[in-house]
Please model this.
Amino acid sequence: MKIDAFPTSIYILHNNDNDEIKSLVEEYYRKNKSNSSTPNNWNCQLFTTFGTKNFPNDCLQKLIHLFKQFQRELGIYGNMTFSELWLNCYESINWQEKHMHLPSKWSGVYYAIFDEEEHSPTHFYNPNEKLIASNPSSGNNTLEPKVKEGDMIIFPSWLEHAAPLNKSSKLRATISFNFFFDNEPT
Model:
């Protein structure tokens, strides 16, 4: 499914077989949650493997079909290279501030553990945020796409986004990634 968001597009794909990924993420988090620290330049609170090169690697193989589907949808062929791949886990009152993933080309979020009734999805910010703030009647500043567990959102890395405060007592867990295609036009 493609959703037009501001002057760009984000893509939502769904994995019908999330149970094994969810189990792998839960087990990895349980074993490693005491060993995590948030990177110094992040202004947030969460469990993350960003920058550590540690990741439940079996998860990636179970998502390759979604990346191939994305490639077909865009008509881009060639090798896909991941520059980063990490796990984020949000317990109650955890969040992540607004940020972007430059200099990467594409970024994404996979919702491994997500309760639609209790959790909020990633918030995407309109690149024309300052213009909208000067004229509130001109439109919304954020997009909160409707997602469910097993969904993957892929978006241009320059698009600012944030993980809202987890107000639930249930864990919310996402797999995040940055990637590019060798043959993609710039």
Notes: The chain has a mean pLDDT of 89. The first helix runs from residue 19 to 32. The chain is about 20% helix and 30% strand.
